[in-house]
Amino acid sequence: MPPAAQRVMNEYERFKQKIQAQAETLQDAVQRLEDNRLIDGAKAGRWKAQLRLAVGSMETPLVRIAVVGSVKSGKSTLINAVLGTDLLKRGAGIITSFITRIRSAEQPGGWVALKSWAQVNAEVNDAVRLLPVFGDSLDETPAVDLRRAKDRERLRGWLETVQRDWQQARGRLDPNFILLNAYLEGYPKLRDTVAETSRRLDLDPRQLKAHQRFVGEESQAAYLEDMELHHPMAWLSGEIEIADCQGSDSPNPLHLALLQQYLLQSHFILYVISSRTGLREADLKLLEVIKTLRMLPQTFFVLNLDLDSHSGMEDLEASIERVHRELGWTVPSPNLFAFSGLFQLVAALGEEADERESRRLELWRKDAAAAARHEKGFLQLKEELTERIDRQRTRVLVNAGLGRLAMTAHSISDTARTQKVFFGERLDHLQQSARHLENRQKALMATLGTLENAVTGLRETLKQDMDGAVSRFFDLDRGPVVQETLKTVEHYPIDPDYLQELNDPRRLVRQLHRFYLEFRRDLSRYLVEKVNLRAIAFGKEQEDALRENLERSSRAFWALFQTAMEEYRAELARHHVDLLPMDQGPSSEWIQWEPLAPPPFSGFVEENAVGRSVLLVKFGLGRLTRFLSQVKGRLGRKGPDSSAAGPPQSLQEAIDLVKSETASELIYAFKDYRQNFRFMYLHRMADSAASRLLEAFRSRAEAAHVNFEDLVKRGADAEDRRREDMSILDEIGTRAEELLEEWEALCCAISLEWLPRGGAESVPEAERSRPSPPP
Fold first, then answer.
1. Can you tell me the distance from the alpha carbon of 285 to that of 248, in angstroms, rounded to the nearest whole number?
2. Dihedral, CA atoms, 182, 185, 191, 192, nearest 10 degrees?
């Protein structure tokens, strides 16, 4: 581990361990107060609950790091270099519709989950129904069971026809053809491994590299449902998940949809760019995705230097400068780290490296300047990433854990000071004071009730405002997203070659079905790249508005609550109870609500990837087949009219049918999505934030609550018993106040450079918009 990274990790661990030890001190104090009947069970229970929440938030949260980039950019090699071992298959295929996740662990291991036979056969049959070779008899195609030899032969015949008649003629990659071919090729290898139910295969350290055959061969990757690997990460402390994401230029829109969803729950991104190719169109699209998610500040750009492509240091530095300049067109002040992932990996492997790669390493090391450049770039990435991860964790620790502990310590101090004073009074004075303070305490709780009603009303008002914004944004008649999507469907261009082929009545059904498949595939990509991203951007705007409205309203609520608290404390002061100054209000512990992500509109794309279309097939290809049979009958068996200026009217009717039914299904989908967006996303956010705000007020009011009836009873105890109780209260109150002073000094000791002070308001807006790892 680099010295700077080690220093940051050690500082965070010391900080965390010290706070945990102090939390235990408070837990012991609460238990001692309860055992000596100096607090009742209800108050002890509230304090213990707060301490449990505080201690729970000190558990090191999982930090997710997404590794993204175009195909063959070197993502797997970089992850291997980070791990210091050749774990992931380098240059794996792009068929897999899942993300390979590696979790930090003391021992290597993991698991792979295989699909069940029911799931495999369902995907096979859905893909079969979408093969372009079927048009006239699609509805009559019998179900395929991959376990039957006869069905596998049928499937081979269909694929041969597709390859001959479609792939070679049109030259376009059909995902369903690739998927079915992979299932066929993988069957002999996995027929005895796949079971009736989803099966999970655990991998011990000796079997760990066996996962490579699943992701390295498309024929086996097709059968894979999910995978998680475990491996030590020497220089990354705590719970870490590194994800090897699909290439941003994958032809399958499902891959981009899954990537978007993983990025929404990630904390950092390592964006890998190959120096051999530089930035490509797919990179610019992915950068727009990252920008929409507001994750550019959390993105580390890695220029993976291809040492065999550069003639020397001058050429290498020119490549770095070029990529940095190109990134600057989209990314302000990009954080670029340049080194060879392969150089670092082979160096880390040492004697375990492949002989050929070891010789290449020796050759590369002869250029001392270039070798030093790689070492420096990799070291800088390690130090910066480690510092940012621990900065994130420390912020959570301070805002969630330390805030609750400080509030509990403050409450213990107030309780001890109050009881000490009253135990020293005569019983008649104590009874009189208790009556006055009980009335003031009731007024405080009444204010809390008023606040609860106000926050509940505000929550409903905010929901109504958000509902209005959602209705306008997704308005079916005037909403920009809906209208632009429908126009995309309406104006979808038809390849002139199709028009020529579609004019032949003998091939009309088959060719129109092929047009339909390409149309659907292109629309799927549009929904992922455009509609889903605009929905996410709109959701982020609503999050900002919700946070701003709640922060503004919370200041007014706190003023009301503070007035009631000050009146109560003033009454205590009149009875000679000198309390610590009030805190500044619930500014940070409630502001981070439950991390939520906008629902993906592209959800149907997941079904498309395996041949199930909710949006575009729902109207039934049987209806389309019958319609086209009528069209073919009207056209007759004569050859096409070469003098026609455009497609026949009946052919246009068929194309219009596909588009109109698609538009109808999209409108239905937008209606459904609009409801999910409101209730499953925005309303849940509002509920979570309002609940946290209420809990912040409620916990303070409950902490100030004193059982004066019990105090009066204890005041009647013998003087020696009261003197003993006062000694215990003095000891515990003093310790609580010492802890408060220690925490203030501890926070000041942490460098302001990597620990923003003052809660969420001092965190850069882009970082504040990302969910902290949940406490």
1. 8
2. -110
Residues 554-597 pLDDT 10s = 888 988 998 998 888 888 888 888 888 876 655 555 555 567 88
Who contacts 212 (Cβ-Cβ below 8 Å, separation ≥6)? 88, 89, 92
Q: What residue spans define the domains of the chain?
A: 63-114+206-388, 119-186, 461-699
Tokens of 406: 């400080």
Q: What is the 3-state secondary structure (H, E, C) of 496-559?
A: HHHHHHHCCHHHHHHHHHHHHHHHHHHHHHHHHHHHHHHHHHHHHHHHHHHHHHHHHHHHHHHH
Residues 727, 293: Cα–Cα separation, whole Å: 57
Backbone angles phi, psi at 183, to 5 degrees: -60, -40
Cβ–Cβ < 8 Å for 603, 618? no
Class of domain 63-114+206-388: alpha beta
Q: Is the dihedral of CA 325, 328, 333, 338 positive or negative?
A: negative
Contact 183, 104 (CB under 8 A): no
Tens-digit pLDDT profile for residues 303-322: 999 877 777 788 888 889 99
* Residue recorded with tokens 């923003």: 756
| Helix 175-190 with 149-162: angle, nearest 10 deg | 150
Please say whether the beta carbons of 282 and 550 come within 8 A: no
Q: Is 654 helix (H, G, I), strand (E, B) or coil?
A: helix
Q: Tell me the average pLDDT across 226-234.
A: 91
How many alpha carbons fall within 13 Å on the CB side of residue 749? Answer: 10
Alpha-carbon gap, residue 523 to 517, rounded angstroms: 10
Lowest mean pLDDT among 20-34, 130-144, 374-388, 635-649: 635-649
Instruction: Measure the CA–CA gap between 565 and 582, rounded to whole angstroms.
Output: 9
Share of the chain above pLDDT 70, in %: 79
With b for 16 or more beta-carbon neighbours within 10 A and e for fewer, the 303-327 pattern comes to: bbbbbeebeeeeebeebbeebbebb
- DSSP per residue, 590-638: TTS-----PPPTTHHHHHHTTT--TTTSTT-HHHHHHHHHHHHHHHTTP
Question: Please, are residues 527 and 492 in contact by the beta-carbon 8 Å criterion?
Answer: no
Residues 102-124: pLDDT tens digits? 999 999 999 999 999 999 999 89
Q: How many CB atoms lie within 10 A of CB 282?
A: 17
Whole-model pTM? 0.84
In 182-239, DSSP assigns E strands to 199-203, 224-231
Measured CA to CA, the distance from residue 133 to residue 517 in angstroms comes to 11
Given pLDDT bands bounded at 50, 70 and 90, which one contains residue 678?
very high
Phi/psi of residue 672, nearest 5 degrees: -65, -45
Please give the mean pLDDT across all residues of the chain: 80
- Which are the contacts of 266, defined by CB distance < 8 A and separation ≥ 6? 64, 65, 66, 243, 295
Non-local CB neighbours of 97 within 8 Å, separated by 6+ positions: 252, 254, 255, 258, 606, 609
Give the containing element (helix H, strand E) for 250: none
Say whether pLDDT at 766 is over 50. no
Residues ≥6 apart with Cβ < 8 Å to 133: 158, 161, 162, 165, 166, 510
Cα–Cα distance, 664 to 229 (Å, whole number): 43
Contact 224, 241 (CB under 8 A): no
Residues 219 and 346: their CA atoms lie apart, in Å, by 29
Cα 475 versus chain centre, distance: 28
Range 265-283 average pLDDT: 90
Considering just the CA atoms, what is the radius of gyration of the chain in Å?
33
User: Is residue 153 predicted with pLDDT exceeding 90?
Assistant: yes
The DSSP element (H or E) to which 244 belongs, if any, is: strand 240-244
Report how far residue 606's alpha carbon sits from residue 571's, in angstroms, rounded to the nearest whole number.
64
Decide which of 7 and 721 is more confident: 721
Q: How far apart are CA 707 and CA 357, in angstroms?
A: 75
